[in-house]
Amino acid sequence: MGKIHNRLIFNRRVRVLSDNLADRLPANAQVLDIGCGSGEIAVAIMDKRPDVTIDGVDVLVRPEATIEVRDYDGKTLPFADDAYDIAMLVDVLHHTDDPAATLAEAARVASQGVLIKDHYKDGPIAGLLLRFMDWVGNASHGVRLPYNYLSRNQWRVIWKRLDLKPVQSRESLRIYPMPFDLVFGHGLHFVTLLTKTG
Fold this sequence. Notes:
By secondary structure, the chain is of the alpha/beta class. Helix content is 35%, strand content 23%. The mean pLDDT is 92.
């Protein structure tokens, strides 16, 4: 299953997500990629946006990472307040026990805001589809899978509580080729830049 996923999905996912993320980064941004994994999305973004620099941190540092990755404990980022312009979390928050706390910590180290890609768990089968996608994409890498997905309303409550305002949002990402996107794409994914309002 992992080999099929890599062949059909992984490269397309890197291309589609890096396009969507690169378009939302401010000029000359210094970015912290939290939970950067292999770093391939960060590299693809920097290829598209040579004005942007991206550093990585992760709780599980992969030996094959394509960028330099600093280890961290998953709770407290080893950086001062406003050390970066933007913090980026790509399919990370649903792997945490407390997405709000992780997002608050990301906002602490980012002077301008937080760029996230994650999921909406709305509808009767959304949770099952998300769990399946997560398992296929991550189980072979030893990534922790708490399946902690949130609804649109739950995200909005968290963002408001943290004084973060969603701007430049997109939901129709077309990560998967047709016809798979009809099942695994529709209404389940989003990218948004959250700017600080406080």
